[in-house]
Specification:
The chain is of the alpha/beta class. It contains 7 helices and 7 strands, in the order αβαβαβαβαβαβαβ. It has a 7-stranded mixed β-sheet with strand order 3-2-1-4-5-7-6, with helices on both faces. α1 crosses α3. The longest helix has 14 residues. The chain is globular.
């Protein structure tokens, strides 16, 4: 992490880290499994042809879908919510092997603020960034907490290679309008109109399913780093 937080960037974007009380298995996953799979910047996915980052992976189904369908890609998955971390880890860590399992060669977790990782990565490290159904922070006074934010664009752009993609999906009308307002005029990113149906190669998520069940219409953007 850089020593100085960039001016204008809020010190916190996310809400709570923990929901209801964790079960013993979940406690072991956090205490024993997370350190084994945490991204440290070294010894990770030698031979991978690309490095992708997912910011706020929720339950982890999108990350795991990407991992399974892209065998040459290494993925860093970032999430601060402990139940989300446990949800993903439950899928890859056998019961009773929390302290001894071998992490997937192409997957590492970042259980902290994704902005710290973006600031710490070498310039042009990432081939793709995913932001799938982020918390919209719909109230105007909370707009500064949105990951898509004018002060965040240079941070994201620095970590992405020229020509790399930033993929965003949202079902919230306020956030959808905000994505267009912030990114459309930016010289750092270029993109066409959003897709109204999930494009091929985008794994489904539980949040998308909830949105569709509730009658909300997701939009899907691909922004390209200039």
């Amino acid at each position: 992490m850089t020593e100085e937080w960039p001016e204008g960037v809020p010190h916190r974007l996310y809400g709570r880290r923990r929901g209801h009380k964790l079960r013993p298995r979940q406690e072991r996953l956090l205490s024993d499994a997370v350190p084994r799979i945490r991204f440290t910047g070294t010894g990770f996915a030698a031979g991978a042809t690309a490095l992708w980052l997912e910011v706020g992976f929720g339950g982890g189904e999108h990350t795991l879908g990407l991992l399974r369908s892209n065998p040459d890609v290494a993925i860093i998955a970032s999430e601060v919510y402990e139940h989300g971390l446990c949800s993903l880890l439950t899928e890859i860590v056998p019961e009773g092997q929390e302290a001894s399992f071998e992490p997937p060669a192409r997957l590492r977790l970042w259980p902290a603020d994704a902005r710290e990782l973006l600031l710490a990565l070498a310039e042009g490290s990432l081939d793709r960034l995913y932001l799938m159904f982020p918390d919209p922070w719909p109230k105007a006074r909370h707009a500064k907490r949105r990951f898509v934010h004018p002060e965040m664009l240079p941070i994201v752009a620095r970590a992405l290679k020229p020509g790399a993609q930033w993929r965003i999906a949202s079902d919230d009308p306020t956030y959808q309008a905000w994505v267009e307002e912030v990114l459309r005029p930016s010289a750092l990113f270029a993109g066409g109109p959003p897709a109204e149906e999930r494009p091929e190669g985008w794994p489904p998520t539980r949040y998308e399913a909830k949105a569709l069940a509730a009658g909300r219409k997701p939009l899907y953007w691909v922004w390209t780093r200039a």
